[in-house]
Write a structure and sequence with these properties.
- The protein is an alpha+beta fold.
- The chain has one domain: S-ribosylhomocysteinase (LuxS) (Gyrase A, domain 2), CATH 3.30.1360.80.
- 28% of the residues lie in helices and 19% in strands.
- The protein has a 4-stranded antiparallel β-sheet with strand order 1-2-4-3, covered by helices on one side.
- Strand 3 and strand 4 form a beta hairpin.
- Helix 1 packs across helix 3.
- It is globular, with a radius of gyration of 15 Å.
- It starts with 16 loop residues before the first strand and ends in an 18-residue tail after the last helix.
- The model has no long low-confidence stretch (mean pLDDT 96).
């Protein structure tokens, strides 16, 4: 299929994890990478929309304090994670460092940025506490982030 994640057997992954989902080289040579930042086990658990919305705002704002190569942090429609899109090549370890630093910042946040009617299309649909709980849970599993599959593999078999 054309969409990379549709070719991933979601029954075989073990969330939480970080996974290189795509790499594109643009016509002028620039590289864009997309990481699957999976918070919840597919088809078993999911994040509630106010949690997703608040994580999106917090991560989008706070990640840029750590990297000028963040292009986007977008929620997955299945509500199990996000896509982190970065400019340039990044190793999984570098992405893990960025995610760890950003989630640590989220734990210290006193508010969700731009959670108001002026700056957000649904400013009332936020939960700082829920976002911090999800960040805390993800951080607690830091040692396993680069193990994507339940059988211990980091990458799909060829």
């Amino acid at each position: 299929m054309n969409v990379e994640s549709f070719n991933l057997d979601h029954r075989l992954v073990a969330a939480p994890y970080l996974r290189l989902a795509d790499r594109k080289q643009l016509p002028q040579g620039d590289v864009i990478v997309k990481y699957d930042v999976r918070f919840a086990q597919p088809n078993v658990a999911h994040l509630e929309m106010p949690v997703i919305h608040s994580l999106e705002h917090l991560f989008a704002e706070k990640s840029r304090d750590h990297s000028d190569r963040v292009i986007d942090f977008s929620p997955m429609g299945c509500q199990t994670g996000f896509y982190l899109i970065l400019q340039g090549e990044h190793t999984p370890e570098q992405v893990a460092e960025l995610v760890e630093a950003t989630l640590t910042d989220i734990l210290g946040a006193s508010e969700v940025p731009a959670a108001n009617e002026v700056q957000c299309g649904w400013g009332a649909n936020h939960t700082l506490e829920g976002a911090q709980r999800a960040a805390r849970n993800f951080l607690a599993e830091r040692d396993g982030w680069l193990t994507v599959f339940a059988d211990g593999r980091a990458e799909a078999s060829a």
